[in-house]
């Protein structure tokens, strides 16, 4: 599917974004290893989260569909069983890295792999600390890449002190999951400032998790209780249409959206770039705040994003490049080298996307700068299977008179299955 995205009348109105991918992954995994009845309302039931569900089912979890989402009775922290086939995380780094924390040291043998993109993504960052905790893990190039193979272990792990060298919520969450089954408290220090969904959920489930100036100390538990969660909308998905509305100068209201501050950095930068953004928290579920975000356009101007801001907007950086192309002045992003290890080398892909539309984004080792406003022309973007690049290109189409064609747009389904429907319902055209 190679659709062309255009918005001759602009994009705006009101949107209910798809459910949060990060929160759904965690809810599925924690429900599977809980020791009680769990109800997950409004999970993201597509792409990456389907991969997580399928892997957990291969490990012995059983989910049943309910009118609002999914239900399961957890098998307990030691209750996962040996899968009879290789687990396939497909395109999902979060599935892979978080599952590693649940699989490490278990008494059974498991092999975990994924698609062509996933098997090039760095896994040493979880394998190394898990080995230090006593897990026996083999993998390609000495464990740097999937397929990863977990050899049978004693069921528990040794507590360690680990300094995170990169601000990765996936690595942090993997170690928090592993720490649940350690024989004593596990310390996670270093670059822990990243999305905190795992910390919020674990605390709500009664796990003792201390935070001393960013150094986390997790105490093991014998079991986790059952729980109910209502998954909020995904702010990273909403960010595509916030960008489109700002580029077109239209208003947008987003309902039922997650407003966790560790995910909201994009809103802060959008404000600095001239947008009027208000958020109103309306509810909370298992520690996750949700509410309404209202966006009004303003004259867009360039800004500088610092390394400290990057973890809270890591998935929205391609959109900052799109905004930068339409903003007056220079937009600079520093400290985003992690983007090279996402579903694609996203820094390269950002530059290639702009070039396909006659624009220019200058790459640096750790980010980029873009001087705007630039007049983009109609063109074809090849996101090479990266969902966030595909959707960033589509919303750039909202600001290009003859639109933007996106090759293989189907890859967007891993996080935003109804993107085309929403693009049209907000006033755009997809042909
Ligand atoms: C995620 C964390 C981020 C993010 C990814 C989802 C998560 O990755 O890019 O889309 O759910 O923990 P890193 O933690 O590796 O930066």
Topology diagram in text:
Layout: E1 4-6, E2 13-15, H1 21-32, E3 37-41, H2 47-58, E4 63-65, E5 69-73, E6 87-88, H3 93-103, E7 110-113, H4 124-132, E8 137-139, H5 140-143, E9 145-150, E10 161-164, H6 169-179, E11 186-190, H7 197-204, E12 209-212, E13 215-218, E14 228-230, H8 235-248, E15 252-258, H9 265-272, E16 276-285, E17 288-296, E18 304-305, H10 317-326, E19 329-333, H11 346-356, E20 362-364, E21 367-372, E22 379-381, H12 387-396, E23 404-406, H13 419-425, E24 429-430
Parallel strand pairs: 2-15, 3-14, 6-7, 10-11, 18-19, 22-23
Antiparallel strand pairs: 1-23, 1-24, 3-5, 4-5, 7-9, 8-9, 11-13, 12-13, 15-17, 16-17, 19-21, 20-21
Bound molecules: shikimate-3-phosphate.
Shikimate-3-phosphate is lined by residues 22, 25, 94, 168-170, 173, 194-195, 314-315, 338.
| Count of spatially separate domains | 2
Strand order of the largest sheet: 22-23-1-24
**Helix/strand class:** alpha/beta
Oligomer: single chain
Q: Hey, roughly how much beta strand do the residues contain? A: 15-25%
CATH architecture of the largest domain: Alpha-beta prism
* Mean pLDDT over the full residue set: 98
Gyration radius from CA atoms, angstroms: 21 Å
Sheet having the most strands: 4 strands, mixed
Helix content: 25-40%
At the fourth level of CATH, the homologous superfamily of the largest domain is Enolpyruvate transferase domain
Distance between the ends: 10 Å
What small molecules accompany the polymer chains?
shikimate-3-phosphate
Report the count of strand segments.
24
Sequence stretches where pLDDT stays below 50 over 5 or more residues? none
